[in-house]
Amino acid sequence: MHIADMAISVFVVVVIAVSFLSNVVVLICFLYNQEIRKQVPGLFILNLTVCNLLLTVSNMPLTLVGLINKGNTGGSGFCQTVGFLDTFLTTNSMLSMGALSIDRWVAVVFPLSYHSRIRHRDAVIGLGYTWMHSLSFSTVATCSSWVGYHHLYASCTLCNARASGSRTQFIIYTVVLHSLTFLLTLIVLCVTYLKVLKVARFHCKRIDVITMQTLLLLVDIHPSVRQRCLDEQRQRRQRATKKIITFIGTFVVCFAPYVITRIFELFTLGQINPHWGVLSKCLAYSKAACDPFVYSLLRNQYRKTCSDLTNKILKRSSFNSSARMVENGRVNDTNNFKPTH
């Protein structure tokens, strides 16, 4: 095996492990915490988590096997099913990210009317659209027999070779698919999160004015306290920018190479480096490992839920071990004080 294939295989194994464990933790937190289940964004996070888990257990391992064996390991029907899931789950995940950004924009820009603007019924309608959108594109590709094993990506996905008889239709389909999924979601992310950043900076400026006025009035304040206030002021300004960069940056870094390679593949006659093709596919997979941290596990509510679950498990384990020690002690005492004949 080539050293590049070995490195990519290790990368896929790490992505599978991190994606599976982190998404399972998010799912456990969702089922355990009633407050998370009541929130409207929880539906989109649940949908995103389930899509990531299905992608992790179905498509990623087969890509790893295809990378190691240098070929398809299943039959034509099995590969078409996996390819259907690849298109459906990836499209559904992208649209779920767009829905989460819209929810965050409404919550920040219209905080007083958020609960009247975004209700569970609206979230269900949004989820219904994402499913119909994803099902329509994946069904068209499967029914047109455009899904098969693609050696460039070492996975069962949309395959140019299977569309040789209808190349024009395949090009139109691929361009429309990525325009209405990747490009549309990217535009939504940029518009909504930049508006969120604008509002966050406005509030930071108001807080900074109040902080500076307070520091000017408190002439006897210790220099270390003054410096701490200024440091917190600077961190507050940077916090919102870092979050926005994380939301948009992870989406672009993970999905853009794969989408660009897909479009470039349609209009070029040259050979694309197979290592680059597999790497771009693996980068798209890595978004499933990033999403739990970007949208869930780094939030205080999920962190507190994880902490409560961990403490509950450790206390129960500690209680059980203590009970066993006490029981063993009683047995030993009983044996020591047996009457002798």
TrEMBL record:
Sequence ranges assigned to domain G-protein coupled receptors family 1 profile in this UniProt record: 22-295
Molecular-function GO terms, alphabetical: G protein-coupled receptor activity
Residues passing through the membrane, by range: 6-32, 44-68, 94-114, 126-150, 170-196, 244-264
Keyword Hydrolase: no
InterPro entries the UniProt entry points to: GPC_Orphan_Receptors, GPCR_Rhodpsn, GPCR_Rhodpsn_7TM
Keyword annotations from UniProtKB, A to Z: Cell membrane, Disulfide bond, G-protein coupled receptor, Membrane, Receptor, Transducer, Transmembrane, Transmembrane helix
Keyword Transmembrane in record: yes
GO cellular component: plasma membrane
Subcellular location: Cell membrane
Pfam families named in the record: 7tm_1 (PF00001)
Membrane topology recorded in Swiss-Prot or TrEMBL: Multi-pass membrane protein
GO biological process: adenylate cyclase-activating G protein-coupled receptor signaling pathway
SUPFAM superfamilies per UniProt: Family A G protein-coupled receptor-like
Biological function: Orphan receptor. Displays a significant level of constitutive activity. Its effect is mediated by G(s)-alpha protein that stimulate adenylate cyclase, resulting in an elevation of intracellular cAMP.
Name of this chain's protein: G-protein coupled receptor 26
Source species: Oncorhynchus kisutch (Coho salmon)
